[in-house]
Amino acid sequence: MSAVVAExxxxxxEHEHHGPEKGILRWIITTNHKDIGTLYLLFALVMxxxxxxxxxxxxAELFEPGLQFVDPNFFNSMTxxxxxxxxxxxxxPAFVGLANWQIPMMIGAPDMALPRxxxxxxWMLVAGxxxxxxxxxxxxxxxxxxxxxxxxxVMQTGKAFPFAIFAVHLLGVSSIMGAIxxxxxxxxxxxxGMTLMKMPLFVWTWLITAFLLIxxxxxxxxxxxxxxxxxxxxxxxxxxxxxxxxVLYQHIFWFFGxxxxxxxxxxxxxxxxxxxxxxxxxxxxxYSSMVYATAAIAFLSFIVWAHHMYxxxxxxxxxxxxxxxxxxxxxxTGVKVFNWTATMWKGSMTFETxxxxxxxxxxxxxxxxxxxxxxxxxxxxxxYHDTYFIVAHFHYTLVPASIFILMAAGYFWLPKxxxxxxxxxxxxxxxxxxxxxxxxxxxxxxFLGLAGMPRRIPDYAVQFADWNMVSSxxxxxxGFSQLLFVYIVIDTIKGGTGEKVxxxxxxxxxxxxxxxxxxxxxxxxxxxxxxxxxxxxxxG
Amino acid sequence: MKKTKQLLVxxxxxxxxLGSAHADYKLNLMQGVTQLSHELYGLHMLVLWICVxxxxxxxxxxxxxxYHHRKSKGHVAEQFHENTTVEIIWTIIPTLILVGxxxxxxxxxxxxxxxxxxxxxxxxxxxxxxxxxxxxxxxVHFESHLDEASEKTHRISTADPRTVAxxxxxxxxxxxxPVKKKIRLLFTAADVIHSWWVPDLGWKxxxxxxxxxxxxxxxxxxxxxxxxxxxxxxRDHGFMPIVVIAMEQAQYDAWVKATLDKxxxxxxxxDEPRAVLMSKGASxxxxxxxxxxxxxxxxxxxxxxxxxxxxxxxxxxxxxIGFIQAGTSKMPAFRKLPDxxxxxxxxxxxxxxxxxxxxxxxxxxxxxTPKYDDDE
Lengths: 540, 376
Prior knowledge:
The complex is a heterodimer. Chain A is mainly α. Chain A is built from 16 helices and two strands. Chain A has one domain (3-535): Cytochrome C Oxidase, Chain A. Chain A has helices at 25-29, 33-61, 72-107, 115-134, 160-188, 201-232, 246-280, 287-301, 316-328, 330-344, 353-376, 378-384, 388-418, 424-451, 465-481, 483-494, and strands at residues 3-5, 533-535. Chain B has helices at 2-19, 35-68, 84-112, 148-155, 249-264, 274-288, 290-293, 311-314, 317-326, 339-351; strands at 120-127, 130-135, 141-144, 175-178, 183-189, 194-198, 203-207, 213-217, 223-229, 242-247. At the A-B interface, helix 3, helix 7, helix 8, helix 9 and helix 10 of A face helix 1, helix 2, helix 3, helix 4 and strand 7 of B.
């Protein structure tokens, strides 16, 4: 990273009343960024398995042609809920958890700027996710219209309809509060000398992500509120019979939806840019171009939404504009991939588990980017759209990208957070099982989509049977191998290998970030006096 | 470790399969049978090869570095971290590649949009969960449902789909079109959004309720081309396939004449033996009722009421006729059923053992009198 610290503060001034509450109350009323980060991360891990179980229900039903296990409506509920739980319950909270733990330590701040709101946004997230999960037990079942909630279909939802919408409101408020907190922290609480262009890239990507969140969550809330009034108050925003337009909803939704997927990928870029330099023993290549590329991607995300809607009947000028704008995304994304490669080039690499996951991320995310480039070409998207090809595409950009990087972040920072070293052999086993099975799971879905299998169907023509079976086998392998990660987290918290880790944990890590200058584990309160930032020779 | 390597080799081979120009139908996009589908296939292969080429270059560099620049080989890290020249190079080169892609892509978008000078027009209406085809030039108009064999098989969990020909890709009445004729298709929907996709034609188009979309095609050679609905449209989204049969003009003309003759014939209302009423009634039920009320007549709790033992079904017959013809706020009105089909259906509903009903009566087509009057 771009800055090192001369010395960290002394901890002898930390009196007992600064310590955590005792017992369960500590976790409920905590305003400590580390505690809240832990809550977010554990909640996300639980939700990862809840959403994963739903995915396995889907893959079990698709293992063979014919309907074996579930009713088609429940199948549709599973695809809907799997997406909602993974997006709003697993990936987003996991990154907020990382932000809570890392941003104050990375910028030399004692805590988040708004600690009480921090607590509130976590518990509203829990309320929102529990509310949406409760719809599974309501008359008429959970929402089954896809996570996109397209009308008029979503109007056919049973009793769950208003509950799902209120849950979306809660999740939105929670995200906005989290985003405000992150922006306030980064703008106000950096240690002296920590200028914006010296911030670690993880902080940068989260700063940009937070602005995205504040811009888009109200749009989503507005869209679902219009659904609510259409159903209960006789408005006709999306009802053609009353002068509305169902396609209007899609425009509003994707104006939220496209930046939303970048909310899940930009912090991923940040973590990768943090981990790769440490294990290449080299500074990140092209720091400032990474910052500009992230900002460019964030900007582009607002002007490309209708590429999710090429076949909806756009005018030709719209098709062309959205095609050109979407193609542009490849340029800053390419810059990022080239920079990561250049960071590895002529380094002195070692391949601990976090690095393995990060390298797999660069390769597999790039493959997801390639299929994204293919789909940006509007005319060919008339073939790809709503098939398994796109299912393969966005899972490549989410599972071996966001999820892999979350795993990498876990391995990378767990020793810092707990003071214990994880078991490297089991970590590597987890990595190899994951990287092999995730490709068995998702790669064949490219073939299925190109061969003509639509997405969101519970049963399929016999010609699609072979690759579906392969994909399902991969799904179960991937799902069960993630239990190794749970084992490692618990084992590391309890003491891990027993090896006492140093403050740096990884060789020369303190060159790369302030958090490595703190003890492992860091005390409950850190940087109560700001550290002194000394610019290194790497700073551009 | 050996297993892992074998699997990796498998994956590499699979990915090579994707890139091969003469790829199997199961691995790659189909070339299709229209000028548009060929153009899009060419575009698809162009972009795919560009991706493969960039992938080899980037991953090749990365893996070279991973192999050679490792600490265990004693490589000492260099500390360079910036180079404006290379940043500019790897911004400009991708931009040029994108411009190269955008040129043929723009042409294809324009070609897809050429819905002028068509020689005939077919209106396609998506409904939960079947398609309705109306030939605007000659008046041919019919519904196209999933065929009976697939319908029964997917509703009975013990049935084996592999024994059914074209499982889930067969319909009772396919869309018939002449070859080498520029056809305009109009798309709309009656309830929710559907999407009409036949991969061999090269595109899909959404059918939005209350709005009309258009697209065009001209099929090069006779054949049977299959597709499916591609926009999630509810419970039976996976069960509303599309079949297009393209034939020579002469054959097509004969088909139109035969179809129109049949369509304009009044329904045969002569009496039928009970067994015929029951078996034909089962077909009417499979086509019109099974999606909601299910194959066992039990409906779905919280969604669709059961027919088994329902007083509405087994009670007063006149009221039942009126109910089916008028529909409810949730159930469509089935005034479209001719009297003979209605008589068959009602006899079946009241007596079918698989629905759990056994009233022991029947009704003949000519006994049906309109129980529901339009105000016309």
